[in-house]
Amino acid sequence: QQELARGEGDGAVSFVRQGKLGVFMGARSVGALRAGAADGGPMVAAMPLPGTRRLEGLATGIKHCLQVSSIDAYFLFVRGSRRRMEALRRGRCHIAVMSVLAARALCTPSEEIALELPLGSFVSGHAVFTVPGRRRRPRRVIVDSDSIDQRRLCEAQFAGESIEVVPAPYMQFSQMLAAGAADATVWS
Q: Taking the complete model, does pTM exceed 0.90, yes or no?
């Protein structure tokens, strides 16, 4: 009761009282509701690093949608879905943006996916990159352990093959392949 009264006092919601029928929400302000939930501060969203035009566009689109709803927000750009989920769980952000594959793998039963965007919103696809002429066994495969997607795609691509996992952040993949530090990886 106190929370409803506070929300009405803050202008976040208004109620229509209809006698014996009860009380109904008459109107709501998404921005005011959000500000109340964030203790008056801006919403913080943990986003993937904007390494591609697609991810830059995704960040821009999310920012625009929040602004249209009068929600003040800013973004943290964090490498790896695992790290973004950790930021959410530790209260460092209100939203963690990641692929559906990563969200389904990381969400616990007490957590939920708030919104699924259409296929291709996050990345346009993945490809296997190999260094030609290298036939060593086990094959050395670069895996970014903070990226659920990249790890799972490597597991699927190289299933049944004898591999040695070479851990590295995805920003180092091209340099590692060129320097001969690894033989292959899966990359967006």
A: no
